[in-house]
Amino acid sequence: MPTLHALLQLLEHERRSRDEALQALSRSEGAAGQADAQAQALDTYRSEYVERWSARFREPGSVTLMQCYQGFIQRLDQAITQQRNTVAQARMRVDQARSVLQHNERRVASMEKLIERRQQQQQHQLARREQARTDETAQRAHARRMAAAHDHGESRL
């Protein structure tokens, strides 16, 4: 059975692991937030770009300009798709980091509960030892009184 000192060391290790998991979750959430913001910025840019060029295409223009526009929109759509995939992966990493954190929090809570039970057991053992010492002291005192009374009774005879 591990000693209380060993359990406290293990608890400290588990707390460090939990804190690292918390930092990893924070970093993952930050990266996911940045990826999401970039995806939104690309969507906004595409909408504004289409709106701006839609007015221009109402007027007669060159076929070359239209082809350039379409090529740019295709590359922009590819970038948006890629960024959405990046967002999805970042969100999966957030979910994984959250799961690791929850696991570590459960381990810390379990260690704390185990240590609490061990401390209660130690307190109970100490109380029993103290009670045994008190009982033994009382028995000795009683035996001395009985012996003294017996000695005192014999000296009267």
Brief descriptors of the model:
157 residues; mainly alpha; Helix Hairpins; 94% helix; 0% strand
- Specify the biggest β-sheet: none
**Shape category:** rod-shaped
Number of strands: 0
Computed over alpha carbons, the radius of gyration is 39 Å
Rounded average pLDDT: 92
Concise synopsis of the structure shown:
This protein has helices at 4-57, 63-156. The chain has 157 residues and is mainly alpha-helical. The radius of gyration is 39 Å and the shape is rod-shaped.
Written overview of the protein:
This protein is mostly helical. The chain has a single domain (4-156), classed as Helix Hairpins, CATH 1.10.287. It has two helices and no strands.
Strand and helix layout:
Layout: H1 4-57, H2 63-156
